[in-house]
Amino acid sequence: MWIVDPVDGTREYGEERTDWAVHVAMAVNGAPVLGAVALPGLDLVLRSDQPGEVPPAPEVLRMVVSRTRPAPEATGVAEKIGAELVPMGSAGAKAMAILRGEADIYLHSGGQYEWDSCAPAAVALGWGLHASRIDGSTLVYNQTDVYMPDLLICRPEHAEMVLAVAAAITA
């Protein structure tokens, strides 16, 4: 199943910002197996089939959050692990900020739809990052109900810590 979001971050697009994206992904048996996220404002396309090297994480981790409505779970996790919050627009821009070395963690618990996260998850996985629900379960696409309650994309070395803190906060 092809899952497409032609303008992820319509508010940012309308404000002529650079933190909006275009998503194209393919889910096979529910798994995000192929994806591309274009960041037209930056003249950049990141693809799952052309992985690059993710820059090393700094000493103080950075967590991208919604610039207009950061999720309480994300801000709570950031506080517990001492991460700096980086407000940003679209889901694709946030996820690609990790690949680009501008952030280290993207935790979203405010709900999205399959088209918001499938391509970013596919690209992140293709680049060797961790992508899951915030309870650690697998992301599953092409469902009858296309609502996705939450998402975690981060460097694999941070996944266990972020998932444990998220579990403690949401318990």
TrEMBL record:
Question: What SUPFAM superfamilies does UniProt report for this protein, alphabetically?
Answer: Carbohydrate phosphatase (SSF56655)
What UniProt keywords are attached to this protein's entry?
Magnesium, Metal-binding
Cofactor or coenzyme needed: Mg(2+)
InterPro entries in UniProt? CysQ/Inositol_MonoPase, Inositol_monophosphatase-like
What positions does the entry give for Mg(2+) binding? 5, 8, 116
Kindly give the Pfam families that the UniProt entry links to this protein.
Inositol_P
This entry's Gene Ontology molecular function terms read: 3'(2'),5'-bisphosphate nucleotidase activity; metal ion binding
The domain of life for this entry's organism is Bacteria
GO BP, one annotated term? sulfate assimilation
PANTHER family in alphabetical order = 3'(2'),5'-BISPHOSPHATE NUCLEOTIDASE 1
Which protein are we looking at? 3'(2'),5'-bisphosphate nucleotidase CysQ
Organism of origin? Novosphingobium colocasiae
Q: What is the lineage of its organism?
A: Bacteria, Pseudomonadati, Pseudomonadota, Alphaproteobacteria, Sphingomonadales
